[in-house]
């Protein structure tokens, strides 16, 4: 069972126990474009106590660089090298795990941020934001030439999703032998400023269904993202905690990586899901209402 | 095990045993825009022997009326009242099974043929081919007004699929209490003239994934389509046979309805799938290479 923390001593104890603090962003730091109360103060407390701060997001529509501007706009201090996104993880997976040969290409279903991360890793791609593929004009195989150099399809949230992109990706995945199928993340929905909308997992769903095959996912809860963090940040898992709002991504991700987990209730997960009659099988170590709750340690001092 | 038929006597015996002949179309009568050899002659033999002929298609992009023009173009005799499509089955399901009140509406992901069938059943709909919903412009909930009268989402093959349609459908299915989720059919792919493309099942897949919920399907193998046929055609299941090229739609549909099943190998299913080391668990009663094989009964006479 999760421990519900509420007293000043309990917040202090957590601050003492962990040196590295991983944060999910949407639902923890902000909701859509609204900063969650107390976040800036708590991150400031952590930094003043020399904690290592890392931001781990499944948002694949933005590169780490452009994601940083979101922090800036909301007045949250962050550095590009503290930010890890699922688009970056997908790019690193292609360059370092698959080691895609330089002569090969990736077909992208996704947006500019994913393309930027691929470009930074030196990966050649087609599709994506190319105007030819962002169309509602009819698609016919008679006009399509299969590029034999496409060796992977990578799929992230793409609000320009259309039948041409899906059909091309399907051709590569069925006709180019060994073509890799990668999804930045499996989130079924994402919290926009005004409510839930279909997420990246829903964008790769047509291909999963047509192929009868699941993609390799690089975002949370997959370990690929933690491997990316590990490659850049030295941390001791026993003294590392992840703060998230989603049980099946953030909390599971922490558990898969041997980290301590702290659930906040400012995002997707409701109180009901952890204390109700049918609680989730994914049980975080700790629960608190909001990240801002940690401010209590300074009020007392 | 299926019986492989090959002799004139065996074809004659089948013709004697069944009064009503149901046919899948794509992969049985034609492939894309190419008529399969011998089809016109065999249908002619059936009609001359006073067999009842019924065409049962999962194609939901065309109404029965517009599907008839396909028969005409390929020189295959057919009458509108012999054609049953999954779009028609969806419309009948809404009007007769759900009995959608006249004040309620359907949000459509699909094309003109589906709209035509809904209109013919007196069902009010939004979405579909409406230019407002056929766009790649960004979708934001801030500009969206939930129509409280939308009581069902019906989803067929839609080559104009886009994020606006998916997002609106997701809103209705999550925010309008009791909103029905209906798919014309679950086909993962469909055979275009130049090869396989993602099918109607792939178009509803993002909603299935985002909702964590499956739609009610009205096409084969669901019984809804057979209920539509039964409502118009009197037939004795014991003397009725269905000819199809797909095990998990046509043959399963026949088995679910207590009909005899005949697989042809001119479409999706390969010889390997029925006689190979890992045969499908769906076993048709009979197998023949092509519908045209039945011509042998006239060559002899």
From TrEMBL, chains A, B:
Q: Name one Pfam family in it.
A: Hydrolase_like
* Entry keyword set: Hydrolase, Magnesium, Metal-binding
Q: Where does Mg(2+) bind?
A: 24, 26, 245
Which domain of life, per UniProt? Answer: Eukaryota
Top class in the EC scheme = hydrolase
Q: Which InterPro entries match?
A: HAD-like_sf, HAD-SF_hydro_IIA, HAD_sf, PGP_euk
Q: How is the cofactor bound?
A: Divalent metal ions. Mg(2+) is the most effective.
Where do the annotations place substrate binding?
220
According to the UniProt entry, what is the EC number of this protein? 3.1.3.41
Task: Note whether Nucleotidyltransferase occurs among the keywords.
Answer: no
Q: Which SUPFAM superfamilies match?
A: HAD-like (SSF56784)
What protein name does the entry list? 4-nitrophenylphosphatase
The protein's organism comes out as Agrocybe chaxingu
């Amino acid at each position: 069972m999760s421990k519900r923390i509420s007293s000043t001593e309990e917040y202090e104890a957590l601050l003492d126990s962990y040196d590295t603090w991983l944060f999910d962003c949407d639902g923890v730091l902000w909701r859509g474009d609204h900063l969650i109360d107390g976040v800036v103060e708590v991150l400031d407390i952590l930094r003043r106590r020399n904690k290592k701060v890392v931001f781990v997001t499944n948002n694949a529509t933005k590169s780490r660089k452009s994601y940083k501007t979101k922090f800036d706009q909301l007045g949250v201090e962050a550095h590009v090298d503290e930010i890890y996104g699922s688009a970056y993880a997908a790019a690193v997976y292609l360059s370092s795990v698959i080691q895609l040969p330089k002569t090969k290409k990736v077909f992208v279903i996704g947006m500019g941020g994913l393309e930027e991360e691929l470009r930074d890793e030196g990966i050649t791609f087609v599709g994506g934001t190319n105007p030819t593929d962002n169309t509602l004009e009819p698609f016919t195989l008679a006009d399509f030439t299969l590029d034999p150099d496409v060796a992977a399809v990578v799929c992230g949230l793409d609000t320009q999703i259309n039948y041409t992109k899906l059909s091309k990706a399907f051709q590569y995945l069925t006709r180019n032998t060994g073509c890799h199928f990668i999804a930045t993340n499996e989130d079924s929905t994402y919290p926009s400023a005004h409510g839930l909308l279909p997420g990246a997992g829903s964008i790769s769903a047509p291909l999963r269904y047509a192929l009868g095959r699941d993609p390799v996912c690089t975002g949370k809860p997959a370990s690929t993202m933690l491997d990316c963090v590990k490659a850049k940040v030295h941390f001791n898992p026993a003294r590392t905690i992840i703060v998230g709002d989603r049980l099946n991504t953030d909390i599971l991700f922490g558990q898969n990586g041997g980290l301590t987990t702290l659930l906040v209730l400012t995002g997707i997960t409701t109180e009901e899901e952890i204390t109700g009659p049918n609680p989730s099988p994914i049980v975080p170590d700790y629960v608190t209402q909001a990240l801002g709750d940690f401010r209590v340690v300074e009020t007392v001092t």
